[in-house]
Specification:
The structure is a single chain. The chain has nine helices and seven strands, in the order H-H-E-H-E-H-E-H-E-H-E-H-H-E-E-H. Strand 2, helix 4 and strand 3 form a beta-alpha-beta unit. The chain is of the alpha/beta class and about 230 residues long. GO terms for molecular function: methyltransferase activity.
C-alpha cells in the first residue's frame, strides 16, 4: 500500500500528514485486515437485508471495505478525506467524500444492511455519537447490523497513545457505548475486544479487559422494530 504515500495535487498538507500518522500508528494493513476479518466473521446477517448496502463510515485506508467486499456485501465507504477517497477509488473500491451525519440524514429510512465505523466515534463529541446512533437505527433496515470499534480506555497501552491523534475528542468506555447503543433501540448487542497488548508490554492486572487496546460492539435493529409494529397496529 505504498501508493498511499504518493503526493497528490489539490489535497491539503493536513490530509497528507494525517495519512502518514495513520500509517505509523494504526499498524500494518495486513494485520488490521486480519483483525477485521475475525470480527466480521462473527456477524450473522439476516438474508432479508443482505443485498442492501453496507456503509463503512470513516473508511480511511479501506481495510474494512475490502473485507466487506470479500464477504459478499455491497460496501460503500464514506470519509471526510478527499485524499483517502481518491486512493480508494483508484483501487476500485466504492467510496465517496462526505460527512457521516450529513450522508445518513439524506439516506432513505430502512435502506441499509449495515453501518460500520472503526475508530471514528472517538473523533466526535458524545452528542454527535448519540446522533450517529439515532440516525443509524433509522436508516438500517429491520434485521440490519451496526458494528463499531474504538480505543479501549480501560487499557493503559491504548489510553497512553490516545491523544497522539490530535483529532481525538474523548475516549468512550465499553459499557458507556453499550448503554448508548441499547437505549437507542438496538438489540442482540455483543462487545468485542481486539489488538491484545504485546506480552512484552503488558502491565500486571487482574482485569482481562485491560489487556486489549480496542473495544467494539455489534448490534442489530430488531426485525420487528417499534416503528414497524406501530404501523402494523
Amino acid at each position: 500500500m505504498s501508493d498511499f504515500l504518493v503526493e497528490e495535487d489539490g489535497i491539503t498538507d493536513e490530509e497528507h500528514q494525517y495519512l502518514l500518522m495513520q500509517m505509523f500508528f494504526r499498524g500494518p494493513m495486513d494485520k488490521v485486515r486480519e483483525e477485521l476479518r475475525a470480527v466480521l466473521d462473527t456477524i450473522d446477517v439476516d438474508q432479508s437485508v443482505q443485498s442492501l448496502p453496507v456503509w463503512d463510515i470513516g473508511c480511511g485506508r479501506g481495510e474494512l471495505l475490502e473485507i466487506l467486499n470479500e464477504a459478499g456485501f455491497n460496501a460503500v465507504g464514506i470519509d471526510t478525506s478527499a485524499l483517502m477517497i481518491r486512493k480508494l477509488n483508484e483501487l476500485n473500491l466504492e467510496a465517496r467524500h462526505g460527512d457521516a451525519i450529513d450522508e445518513l440524514r439524506m439516506a432513505p429510512d430502512n435502506s441499509l444492511c449495515g453501518i460500520t465505523a472503526f475508530h471514528v466515534i472517538e473523533h466526535m463529541p458524545f452528542g454527535t455519537v448519540t446522533e450517529l446512533l439515532r440516525l443509524s437505527y433509522q436508516k438500517l433496515a429491520p434485521g440490519g447490523f451496526l458494528l463499531l470499534e474504538t480505543p479501549n480506555p480501560f487499557c493503559f497501552e491504548s489510553l497512553s497513545f490516545f491523544y497522539t491523534d490530535q483529532t481525538h475528542v474523548r475516549p468512550i468506555q465499553p459499557y458507556q457505548l453499550a448503554f448508548a447503543v441499547e437505549t437507542t433501540g438496538f438489540t442482540d448487542t455483543r462487545l468485542h475486544f481486539t489488538a491484545p497488548v504485546p506480552a512484552s508490554r503488558k502491565q500486571d492486572t487482574h482485569n482481562w479487559m485491560r489487556l486489549y487496546q480496542n473495544h467494539g460492539i455489534v448490534a442489530k435493529k430488531p426485525l420487528a422494530s417499534a416503528s414497524t409494529l406501530k404501523k402494523a397496529a
